[in-house]
Amino acid sequence: MAAARKKMTEMLEIKNLQVAVESKPILTGVDMTIRRGEVHALMGPNGSGKSTLAGVIMGHPNYEVTEGTIELNGQNILEWDATERARAGIFMAFQRPMAIPGVKMADFLRHAATNVRNPNRKEGEQLIPMREFRKELRDKMTQLRMDEEFARRYVNDGFSGGEMKRAEILQLAMLRPKFAILDETDSGLDVDAVKLASQSIAEIGGADMGILIITHHDRLLEHNTPDFTHVMLGGRIVETGGVELARELYTEGYDKVRARHPEDAAIEREMAAADKKTVSVVA
To answer: Does the domain formed by 2-282 have CATH 1.10.3720.10?
Structure first.
């Protein structure tokens, strides 16, 4: 019972987060609290800052945090690198995962899972016993309806878009993080693949995981009904609601949101104009 209460009180808190890239503001004051067991959806137009927020939470070094904090159970993690954040229980499924030629999925997962479950492990120390790891990996791949041959392939090397996204979900299943950020996991997938991804995430997440799903569509939310839907515009969250808000955005777009928040819509236009000017100068 005490363990269950602890899980429910564990949280990832983002407070007044302001972020720039090369002195150009991207996030202009983001506030969000995710508790374990909750599902949050983050939606917004292209360029609104959704993927930037995901990268900053995970510790991407290219972003400059100019104000605000990110706290894990009350502890500011902004000084932690990505490895420290991963070992503490934060996971990110990338929109465009990198290939790692020469490294097999099974070997990668065994090392990663060991490090997450034993955060103080030093390199070279004992890994999860092979028999135990193989059984767990086989069970997870069966649950996700994946062929065992997948584990013998090099990480994302030669994978299709759908295979890359399934590899990310397999990592999520094996690492069992406290908090997971899924950055457009549905991007580039057909309807059937999105449905399978949605089902898989729901089976893996459950009550033990806080999940932030960044998406443009509501299909990924079919089996992951959000407790909270957030709308990002001009670098900050302008509205928060339930699953009905996600459906409204998918069917009607963002014009009504822009009309309700004219100042943020103006900032969005300014940011888009600045991006176009930068592209034209580079070109």
So the answer is: no
